[in-house]
Amino acid sequence: MRNWERALSVLEALCERGQAAEHGWTLDTELLPPHQQQVNALESQGLVELACREDRAELSALEGRPVRWAARLTPYGHDTLTYGCCRPRPEPSPGAAAPDRQLVELIPSQMTALRVFVGLADQLRVPPADGLAERVRAASCDHGIKRWRLYLTQEQMESVAYGLWLHRMTGSAAEANRFGREYGVVYSPARASGEEPPAVRGGAGVGGRGGWAGRGRY
Q1: What are the C-alpha distances in Å from 70 to residues 5, 16, 38, 178?
Q2: Which residues contact residue 29 at a Cβ distance below 8 angstroms, ignoring those fewer than 6 apart?
Q3: Which side of the chain, N or C, has fewer Cβ within a 10 Å radius?
Q4: Measuring CA to CA, which residue among 100, 165, 168, 160 is closest to residue 132?
């Protein structure tokens, strides 16, 4: 178990015991000494509050016995636990990628444009493909080569091409051009009025195949 996983486990234990007790504290009899030491370490990070002498005296009166140690989460500890339970999980290694997903590596400017695209999902007539926003949130950065790594379905790759096309139309073509060179997926607007907007691979339109490109909201 990694250090942050161990810390979340301790915070979760404090949260559960504190919620079960009317006074909100986890007492010395409820955690083993090694776990108490871990709690003490979290205090220095501001995640845990240890009971002072006055607090221990009040707890001793409530418990009818001497309470020599007690701890509870601070607001920062509570938020750390809440976020930790929902934090984006890292992408699987390439060998563990699902069969229908392809590893895509984006340079920082491409990733920035993609974040803007998925962030506008509720305002776009042709929104990002299903699951693309989650893939963007879960992306990991290889700092050695300065690339963001995502595992995308073909539908999601076509959606990325559309987002980079929007970026191209409003400023920079470099990101879309690079994506097209590296992955062979380029968005092309409709060539005639009323035609569905296709995303093309190697020059062949795919908009008429029931994929992402034709699923706009009108």
Answers
A1: 22, 14, 13, 57
A2: none
A3: C
A4: 160
Contact between residue 163 and residue 117 where contact means Cβ atoms under 8 Å apart: yes
3-state DSSP call for residue 24?
coil
Q: Residue 48: is its pLDDT beyond 50?
A: yes
How crowded is residue 112: how many other Cβ atoms within 10 Å of its Cβ?
14
Classify strands 140-142 and 147-152 as parallel, antiparallel or unpaired: antiparallel
Whose tokens are 């404090």? That residue is: 14
| Closest listed residue to residue 36, CA positions, set 60, 63, 22, 17 | 17
Ranking 120-124, 144-148, 197-201 by mean pLDDT, the lowest is: 197-201
Q: In the structure encoding, which two tokens stand for residue 169, read together?
A: 């139309």
The whole-number pLDDT of residue 181 equals 95
Would you mind telling me the total number of residues written for the chain in this entry? 218
Highest mean pLDDT of the ranges 23-32, 135-144, 166-175, 199-208: 166-175
CA distance 182 to 193: 30
User: pLDDT band at 211, cuts 50/70/90?
Assistant: low
Cα separation, 11 vs 131, in Å, equals: 31
Name, in order, each residue with C-beta under 8 angstroms of 109's C-beta and a sequence gap of 6 or more: 172, 174, 175
CB–CB of 200/188 below 8 Å? yes
Residue 144: band (very low, low, confident or very high) from pLDDT cuts 50, 70, 90 = confident
